[in-house]
Amino acid sequence: MPLDDEAVAEIYREHGPMLRRVVWRATSDANRVDDIVQEVILRVWKQAPDAENLRAYLITTARHLIVDQHRAAGRRPQQAQLVEIAERDSALDRALDQVLVEEALGRLQTNHREIVRCLYYERLTVAETSVRVGVPEGTVKSRAYYAVRNLRVILDEMGVTR
Amino acid sequence: MNPGSDDLHVLLGAYVLGGLSDDDHRAFSEHLRTCVPCQTELGQVSGLPRLLDLAGPEGGPHLAEAAAGVAAGLPTEPDNERVTTLLAEVSRRRRRRRTWITGLAAAAAVAFFVGGAWLGPRWTATTPPTAGPTATSTLPTTHVEAAAVPGSSVRVDIALVTRGWGTQLDIDCEDMPKEGELALWVIDANGRATTAASWRATAAGYSKVTGATALRPNEIRSLEVRTGTGKVLASART
């Protein structure tokens, strides 16, 4: 049976903002954001999936809706010749993955995120990061370890399994 | 595990992200050759750098100093409004489903009405013989006939449909009084009686109404159809 109103509202409150960001960044179309997000939640309502991983289910559903709409738009004659569907889909997948990675980084604990920024994006050494952050090198190493593990878990939760 | 391998194990993070000193890098590489758990774990996280690259050279908006810009350009009307819109749509689609479900239940009731016929002035609790598993498996239904009390000739068929919220009572009556109000009363195990439906008599003496009670079918001890003045026309006991 479908979920009751309260359950639907709760899913929306918990996952709506994340879905809106993801759809917005993947489509850059403010008019479609609400429609797509609403449709995603409605599908969850209707199917009441016994999803162990609701977040991944929501994101996968959003991905399908966006891809479907893209394809539908591509069937319009005046747009058909622009790009091959496969090429466009892979560009879209890439855009979605980008958004999801950014979202995952945002969900990382602050002190773990800081370590990822220093070590990966700024290419600092462990010693330099230790000075920058003001913690011992051993702490930098262990935070890096947990940051990597947690990031993997968060991405898995979002259905990004690559 | 080798002595001190816990310390080495933890180097996996910086090994993936970069930034290890030459000594640490060498030590971990050496450790990795023989440590199966580390090899497994590395296999799980070795794809991360490629994913991190997707977020761009700065790591995306969450790593930028001003993280507020994440949803820049996204219209931000009050969230409650969107919840309201969403629930309105849920309600609209639910109505569509409900129409269909009611139609199905009614069809099942009618099928029994015709197929089962009247079994006499006694309580019968049967599964509708003609309603297939489609109707009964989703909505467990018990049909009863309320026996007319002496001096009354009414015929009442009631379908007790198990619902999440209690029991739906689909009532079919024939040969009823032609005027006045009628009501279905539900009596629980403690003798407490509550009205589950009330309706106005029709000139044809026939009516088909649906009532509801919070009681579950097994909590209902008896059912009574009464007139507006409280006279019992028919009753059924479990």
From TrEMBL, chain A:
<keyword id="KW-0805">Transcription regulation</keyword>
<dbReference type="GO" id="GO:0006352">
    <property type="term" value="P:DNA-templated transcription initiation"/>
</dbReference>
<dbReference type="InterPro" id="IPR007627">
    <property type="entry name" value="RNA_pol_sigma70_r2"/>
</dbReference>
<keyword id="KW-0804">Transcription</keyword>
<keyword id="KW-0731">Sigma factor</keyword>
<dbReference type="InterPro" id="IPR039425">
    <property type="entry name" value="RNA_pol_sigma-70-like"/>
</dbReference>
<feature type="domain" description="RNA polymerase sigma-70 region 2">
    <location>
        <begin position="11"/>
        <end position="76"/>
    </location>
</feature>
<dbReference type="InterPro" id="IPR036388">
    <property type="entry name" value="WH-like_DNA-bd_sf"/>
</dbReference>
<dbReference type="InterPro" id="IPR013324">
    <property type="entry name" value="RNA_pol_sigma_r3/r4-like"/>
</dbReference>
<dbReference type="GO" id="GO:0003677">
    <property type="term" value="F:DNA binding"/>
</dbReference>
<dbReference type="InterPro" id="IPR007630">
    <property type="entry name" value="RNA_pol_sigma70_r4"/>
</dbReference>
<protein>
    <submittedName>
        <fullName>RNA polymerase sigma factor SigL</fullName>
    </submittedName>
</protein>
<feature type="domain" description="RNA polymerase sigma-70 region 4">
    <location>
        <begin position="104"/>
        <end position="152"/>
    </location>
</feature>
<dbReference type="GO" id="GO:0016987">
    <property type="term" value="F:sigma factor activity"/>
</dbReference>
<keyword id="KW-0238">DNA-binding</keyword>
<dbReference type="InterPro" id="IPR014284">
    <property type="entry name" value="RNA_pol_sigma-70_dom"/>
</dbReference>
<dbReference type="Pfam" id="PF04542">
    <property type="entry name" value="Sigma70_r2"/>
</dbReference>
<dbReference type="Pfam" id="PF04545">
    <property type="entry name" value="Sigma70_r4"/>
</dbReference>
<dbReference type="InterPro" id="IPR013325">
    <property type="entry name" value="RNA_pol_sigma_r2"/>
</dbReference>
<comment type="similarity">
    <text>Belongs to the sigma-70 factor family. ECF subfamily.</text>
</comment>
UniProtKB/TrEMBL annotation, chain B:
<keyword id="KW-1133">Transmembrane helix</keyword>
<feature type="transmembrane region" description="Helical">
    <location>
        <begin position="100"/>
        <end position="120"/>
    </location>
</feature>
<dbReference type="InterPro" id="IPR051474">
    <property type="entry name" value="Anti-sigma-K/W_factor"/>
</dbReference>
<keyword id="KW-0804">Transcription</keyword>
<dbReference type="Pfam" id="PF13490">
    <property type="entry name" value="zf-HC2"/>
</dbReference>
<dbReference type="GO" id="GO:0016989">
    <property type="term" value="F:sigma factor antagonist activity"/>
</dbReference>
<protein>
    <submittedName>
        <fullName>Anti-sigma factor</fullName>
    </submittedName>
</protein>
<dbReference type="GO" id="GO:0006417">
    <property type="term" value="P:regulation of translation"/>
</dbReference>
<dbReference type="InterPro" id="IPR027383">
    <property type="entry name" value="Znf_put"/>
</dbReference>
<keyword id="KW-0805">Transcription regulation</keyword>
<feature type="domain" description="Putative zinc-finger">
    <location>
        <begin position="8"/>
        <end position="39"/>
    </location>
</feature>
<keyword id="KW-0472">Membrane</keyword>
<dbReference type="InterPro" id="IPR041916">
    <property type="entry name" value="Anti_sigma_zinc_sf"/>
</dbReference>
<dbReference type="GO" id="GO:0016020">
    <property type="term" value="C:membrane"/>
</dbReference>
<keyword id="KW-0812">Transmembrane</keyword>
